[in-house]
Amino acid sequence: MGLAFEPFMLRTYMSENAMGSTMVEEKFVFGERAISYTREFAGQKKKTGGMPVDWLVKTMKSRGLEVYTQSFSQTLPFPDEVKERYMVRGTNVYGILRAPRGPRTESIVLSAPCSEGNNNNQAVGLLLALASYFRSQIYWAKDIIFLVNEHDLIGTEAWLEAYHDVNMTGLRSSPMQGRAGAIQAALSLELSSDVITSMDVAIEGLNGQLPNLDLVNLFYAFCQKTGVLCTIQGKLQRNDWNTLPGYTHSLSTMLLMVLKQGSGRPQGDHGLFLRYHIEAVTMRGINSFRQYKFDMTTVGKLIEGMFRKLNNLLERFHQSYFFYLMPSLTRFVSIGYYMPAFGFLALILVLRALDLWVQLSDSARPLEDGASEGEQDSSPSLLTLATPVIICHLTGLALYYLPVLSQEMAIQHFPVSETEAVVLTAIAIYVAGLALPHNTHRVLSGAGTERGWRSLKLFSLLYLAVLLGCTTLINFSLGFILAVTMIPVTAFIQPHRSSKVLHGVALILVSPATTLLLSIYLYHELIEYPVTLLECWQHFLTAVSQGILDHHLYGSLLYPLIALFIYPCWLQFWNIVFWK
């Protein structure tokens, strides 16, 4: 919590020498042409009932680009009720501007998703206007790819997989007909109005990956130069850091980033580029009720300036941070500052495990009165301890596989849709795990022993410490959220008859499902859009279905991590509470 206080944070700075100066003069003046392209694109999209592929190909070719199309298709494991799709078919259109002053071994991407309705039409119009302007300039040392993708993230994933000649998600797509150089950086543009009041930057990618901090600094530097208001997490920066409102504003911005990063969901099309070691951000134009507006020309100059700086790169972004938290666009918390917070939490598990080890060692020592023989007889066998661990992990396997595999059977016997069947099956398996025969040790050994639950808890504590440690290295926010909720309770629970109910309730309150529910509620409070308990429950059900879809469509690791590791580990502690 203290890291959100400005004196405890570092000021952002540009580490890459090629990015250092913003003294280039931006000359983009095609704002009206961008609006004209927007109107024409919207009319063609309405006429064709989808993405106007032929019109885009014709328009890009008329601007001197090498134009290619890529068709793709994907069948979802179950219908996506949020976006109302099941069998997805689409086409990506991309044009390549070859570098006139370079070996054409490197490239930069500017992408704009073709969204449903009137959303993002202005982004496509500005992309075409920028392509026309960039074609007339001779200083480009890198190829520039102008990509218009259909079906948002699915289209982006199809294009990236085909470009790099891999297939990680089972997408079916046509071969890539034309390629540019190795992609160094990418900007994804989202604009839905002719004027904006501010520009928001989204940085969180798939599985919590973040772009190099220099790219975020570059965005901020050119926003300052062009005078555009810039935000992160939808919040403007405040200067009154030494007041309570200033601190709470900084804290809420940082917590929003933690929650978004912890979800593992890409917060824009840029999130899938990061998997291929391509530094990328999504720039989102906001048109609010502020009086001062910025037109397309200003936004075009902002993007032009960033591209001219990226054109100067001599090597990939590597000098600045890849692991950080941002309470504002001018301050950041580096990995060296926030990892000790997790380290102190993990230390609780290690110390508690050491305490149990000492207790087990003391109880195994021979006693002078000869009572040690009885102690040795009651020592737990490997089978006694392995059985509950195996049962818990088998439950996790059922939670991972059965919801999708059993949807056909569920809709035949119950009046539910496929999506509802998947979500309700997952919840049913999750709840059923609490009622498993957690006292198998009594069947196997005849009686539960004091040493039995201590040995199981010693293993569970070390297992949880390793799980959270590995998770934190991949996605700090997710690991920290789980650590803050699970560690205090799991470290101190015991199977005492008098406090069994209290410990059981405490353990349920820190279970993965409850943590997700509370995180959703906290997120809506932080974005100042509070929800009722019923609405929060609806968002919870949607989050479960989207988490499963994200895993199958893009390779998100959150659902398998929770189902196969975190939930079984939590069940082991549930077993300890009800040890007899």
Automatic annotation (TrEMBL):
The keyword GTP-binding does not apply. InterPro entries: Gaa1. The chain crosses the membrane at residues 335-354, 382-402, 422-440, 460-489, 501-523, 557-579. Keywords: Membrane, Transmembrane, Transmembrane helix. This is GPAA1 protein. It comes from Polyodon spathula (North American paddlefish). The lineage of its organism: Eukaryota, Metazoa, Chordata, Craniata, Vertebrata.
